[in-house]
Amino acid sequence: MLISTFKYSIDTCSFTHLQRVYPQDTFPSVWQKFDELMSKGMVCSVEEVYLEIIAQTDSLSDWVSKNKDIFLPLDEEIQLNTKKILSTHSNLLDIKKNKSGADPFIIAVAMAYKCSVVTEEKPSGGPDRSKIPDVCKYYSIECITILDMLRKEGLCL
Fold this sequence. Notes:
Blueprint: E1 8-10, H1 12-21, H2 28-39, E2 43-46, H3 47-54, H4 59-66, E3 71-72, H5 76-88, H6 103-113, E4 116-118, H7 132-138, E5 143-144, H8 146-152
Parallel strand pairs: 1-2, 1-4, 2-3, 4-5
Helix pairs in contact: 5-6
């Protein structure tokens, strides 16, 4: 079992939501506090999320490029957890829609590090298509939004 200070495994949509709702040029204090969480080793994500974000050219991709160290490589434990997740929730990935492949890895990181998942996704509401909150519920992993995380850490303005 890995030992770390990670409290949050963050999905792509939460990074983009943070940038959209609290733009860096308008709310620098939110990003300074987020930087503090990073410096304390409390937030992480996976390299797939990094690749999704830098595919765009904007202020978020610039920020992500400067903070690449929070994006974890897919080590053996994360890959094994991902295999377990996909064995119970194969419909988490939607290959037909060419949707992000990062979702199971975000959850796998939370399993490995015993931390919460941060995503803006809502539960699917049915068995035909699993979403991150559905899988987190199945594995008893806390699943919160970026706003919930900011509130928990006392970062709200």
